[in-house]
Structure formats: structure tokens, C-alpha cells
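BUG-426 | component: ligand-complex export | severity: low

The export step for LLP jobs runs without errors, but we want the raw record kept on the ticket for reference. Input record follows.
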Amino acid sequence: MDAAVLELFPATARVDGSELVLGGVSASELALVHGTPLVVYCEETLRARARALKTAVGGGHVAFGTKAFANVEVLKLLRSEGIGADVASSGELAFARAAGFSGDELVVHGNNKDGAFLTEAAAENATVVLDGPDEGRRAAAAGVRRVLVRVTVGVDADTHEAIRTGHHGSKFGLPPAQARELIAGALDVGLDVLGLHVHIGSQLADFDAQAETIVRLASFAASCRDTLGWTPRVADLGGGFGIRHNVDEHATDAAELAATAVETARTAFAEAGLEVPEVWLEPGRSLVGPAGVTLYRVGAVKQLPERTWVAVDGGMSDNPRPQLYDAVYTAVAAARVGEGATQRVSVAGMHCESGDVLIDDVFLPAPERGDLLAVPATGAYTLAMASNYNGVTRPAAVLVRDGVARLIRRRETVEDLLRAEVDDAG
Ligand code: LLP
């Protein structure tokens, strides 16, 4: 296998003869024992990424964007590294609670938090990010004590438009004048308004937009000092650091970007004549994405004049990102990594629509039914967004370390699919 492709895999990935080995366990063994599709998470990579981000923010708080992969065992592991959790629904909060998170480890998000969610957040004594005009009053009434205020400072991030959030007109947060009113209202009802929150988008191509956002945030903070006599003790800069899914994609190391963000905030706030706030981050993808590899089994190969189709036993139900965001993935033949990748193929999913193409264009050894494909950088927003389309059961996930694979989510069964059905005749 090409060394450049190996770099997309988790830190423990290596080639042993013809086999791809992850966390000391061969891909063939993982597939044999746990079936396919299977998402394999590398514990060492998760821990190393958590530590690096934590170190980069110094005394600041790092809350995992749970939406990237809500899994109790992964959440426990991240918590053991001192990482908190950002949750955006009662369901995500339930995952975080099951993993032991509480109090100021929790940051609660949402552009439409219902009363029950606010009450649950208050019961956990979580930090709630206010997102809309009357949310301060509603949060206080629910018993919430500590809040941040989400502001959109009008920066257009360079990423897919579906995951861009910091521009004016975004459904998230409020532009400066309204955000100031929200802060004033929150202070009036006695909330501890810890600071400000921004999140301009996900899978950001570079740091430029984030740097500009931090500068604008500092100037917004200065306007709050001048008009309200209030200044932020915390600047939560959200998530967004990009990762590499294929060899042509560029991404700067997340911990490096986190350190740059802290430095940029320090300079920007000092230049605005303000106390430098504590910097918080909410990385999702950059924590878990590179730690995950999906294994698929090839069930059919069609050599057509136009192209060669390699059909796998999953697709848009376990990874809808190619359809939603034009995401470009790559793959290797996990039990034939010693062979040259000689044939250009397209990897099709098993779903009943032509758009279900997992990888449009990739070189593999001449493909055969029964081959195992490994798709790197699939630890974020894959299982998290998986569906049961076509009555397909969602995959299992394992955590590998030192030659041992531990099941962290079992494969769904057909009984799971039928569980929510109502049989009126019954
Ligand atoms: N904080 C907030 C308030 C967010 O909305 C998000 C992501 C994050 C943190 C984490 O961002 P990350 O570090 O993962 O970029 N399903 C899409 C991504 C949606 C991101 C939504 N918000 C995808 O598959 O690309």
C-alpha cells in the first residue's frame, strides 16, 4: 500500500504481509469475528488526539462534539482524558450522562431547545449556550445557571454550504446587536453569562476564517463592555477543524490549529483592551474522524465498458457523507495490501438508488467478490448519521488496542428494526 494512503489511517495502522492491521488486529480477523460493515476505532489514536488538543488549549475546556459519534464507550474514554461533552439534544445528553459527564463538563447546544431539554440541562448544572431571543428567560425559568451566548459575526467559512454556520442569516446564534440584547436580558434574569460562543462551520479548509472570527469576536466583546459593562470570561470557539479523507485533501493538524486559536484570541482580546478569556473548543470530527476505519465486504463486481463497479455490503445507510457533502473517500483492499493497485474502480453501496456511490474513483488490485475494503477517516459523522434505509441494520463498532478488539456498539438486528412497529391487528 502507498505510504501516503497509510497516513490517512489511525496511528497504529500497519501492513503485515498482505494484511492491514489496526491496533494489533488484522482487518480479516476483525471482519470474521464481528462481521461487516464494521467501524473500527483505534484507542491509541483517540487518546493521542484528545491529549494533544487538551494540551493545546492549556487551561481551557475541550468539549467533544458528541454529534460526531455518540457512543458511551468512546465518551467514557474521552472523559478519562479530561475532555467534556457538547450535546445538542436530550438524546445526546443521555449518551453523555451514561458516560458519566455532569456539571461544567457539559455544554448544551441547540437552535430550538424545548422546555424538557432545558430542564434536563439545568438538572445536570450544565453550561447552556443561548441561541435565540427569549432563551435567557426560558433557561432561567428552567433553573439553568451558567450560560454562553452564541453570536454570528458574519464570516463565511470555506466549506460545504450545508455545514457553514457563522454567516449573517445563519439559523444558529444571533448577529451582534441582537446578541447584545440577549446578553443584557440574560444578565437581567440573573444568569451567570460566562462568555461568548462562535462556531462558523465544520471541515474548515483553513484557519483564515477562524482567525477573522476571533478578531471580530474580540471587537464584539469590546462593544459589550462599552454598552453593557459586561466582558466575557470565556470564548468558546466551537469546532470545525478539518481532517484528511483522501490523499489529495489538505488539513493542518488540529492540535496545531487549536494552539493557534488560543494565541489568536490572546492577541485579539489584548489588542481590544480586554482581559484575555479562557478559550474553549468543541472538536468533533478532528477527535474521532481519523481514529475510525470502516470495513466492508465486496459482494459483486461488474466490469462494464464505462466503468468497473465494486459493490459493498453498506453505503449511504452507514455513510451518507458522499451524497450530503460531496465527500471524497478512498479505500484499500485490506487483505491484499501487498498487491499493486492496478485497476480503477467505483465503489457502489447496496442501496436502491444510483446516487449510492461510496467512492467514485479509486485504484484497487483487480477486485474480486469476497475482498475486504477498508475506508479510512470514517470515525466521524458516519455511524452518527447512519440510517435504516432499505431496512438495512446499522453496523457494529469495535475499539482496538494492543491486539484486542472490544465491541463498543453491537450490530443492529432485524428485530431492532421491527421494535418500533405497531401491529394493530395484534
Ligand atoms: N460545536 C457546534 C456548535 C457544532 O454545531 C458542531 C458541529 C461542532 C461543535 C463540531 O464540529 P466539528 O469539529 O465536528 O467540525 N454532518 C456534517 C458535520 C456537521 C457539523 C455540525 N456541527 C458532516 O458530516 O460533515
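Assignee comment: Attached the raw record above. Residues 65, 67-68, 86, 109, 163, 199, 202-203, 238-241, 282-286, 321, 325, 381, 385 surround LLP (CB under 6 Å).
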